[in-house]
Amino acid sequence: MGSGKSYIGNxxxxxxxxxxxxxxxxxxxxxxxxxxxxxxxxxxxYFRKIxxxxxxxxxxxxxxxxxxxxIATGGGTFLxxxxxxxxxxxxxxxxxxxxxxxxxxxxxNPSFEVIYNRIKGSHRPxxxxxxxxxxxxxxxxxxKLYQQISHLSISxxxxxxxxxxxxxxxxxxxxxxxxxxxxKLSKNEIVLQSNQKFKEYPLNVTNLIEQNWTxxxxxxxxxxxxxxxxxxxxxxxxxxxxxxxxxxxxxxDYKSYLGTNISNIDLIxxxxxxxxxxxxxxxxITKDNYCVIGKRSNKLAEGSTQxxxxxxxxxxxxxxxIYQPEHPYELIIKELKEEINISESQIxxxxxxxxxxxxxxxxxxxxFVAFLNINLQQLxxxxxxxxxxxxxxxxxxxxxxxxxxxxxxxNVTPIGQxxxxxxxxxxxx
Length: 429
Description:
Blueprint: H1 5-16, E1 19-22, H2 23-31, H3 35-42, H4 44-65, E2 69-72, H5 81-88, E3 106-108, H6 112-119, H7 132-149, E4 152-154, H8 159-174, E5 177-181, E6 190-194, H9 203-223, E7 231-241, E8 244-253, H10 254-262, E9 279-285, E10 290-296, E11 307-308, E12 310-313, H11 328-340, E13 347-358, E14 363-372, H12 376-382, E15 392-399, H13 403-409, H14 414-425
Parallel strand pairs: 1-2, 3-4, 6-8, 9-14
Antiparallel strand pairs: 5-13, 7-8, 9-12, 10-11, 10-15, 13-14
């Protein structure tokens, strides 16, 4: 109440390319009544009931629909223990570096004097015509609770300082990746060894996978999302020895990845029970030194609205050869064709720059750099004819000298950040 959460929340939402929702305003819109009128006509108990249902709907929309939201709740929302419990189901796990749906709880805690000067004389139902002492006791009772349930607590009262602090700390969370191999790898230096047995999951994990898939099917019917459930490969272990990177993998399906690494990673304590599917992405550079970066469509089941370089998941070479995975070099050539309509003859040079892991979803990826023998204008003429062009809602073409500036100012996927970082640091570009 009076902390500035609506204004700050809107700024953060814009920075993260997320939707902003103020629960009080949403309730007023849905009920076509002011909060003051709802309190007067129906009482606080009724208001808290509809507030609880709204919060539940919003939380599960991120879980079921993979939405990115910034939510400003009412000042008394988390006095309800069921609301505390609801949000904690989707907490970021700082200690195990796992995350489910990127839920982070932030408390804005200016001093009492700042709060009081903002709200005195207002028509807010809980403090209207109340004494300074009453307002202080209300503020004091909530302050301790906010400290307990939040990941980040900021006491500054200056809007610019709050936004700057949040931005810095959110950027740290987003830049969560591990570089496993920082070395150029030729095609012959990458060996995939596939098990012929499909990956098996414990019953409780299988149930989570199926429930998540059922929810996604329902979502697809409503929002026309793209759903894919082909055969992919789970990484069991890897070994780098004598300049050879050997990966032991086994078949699984994309449904299992969505149901473990994406939607339920914080509920699955044994990381061997995650799908951990193998993928690859590529920093693509035109002849005149522009890099292609796309904003993932909100119709995708993974990473929607984030900026990412071209990439994909390793699949079988053919539908009848499920135990023969395509090589990462082959995958990148395929993805360049499907996503931006680049043929193999238009690739001047293709190099694997390393191997990394996104912390938040435990997904291992090969990192590549591709140099094209066509310029930006030539690329723009052919890119819209790509088979999977609409996997991205928008494309940007960034000068290589301005790549890090773009990364620092946009919501780029962690693994995309790592691929760009390695390409720049090792002078590939």
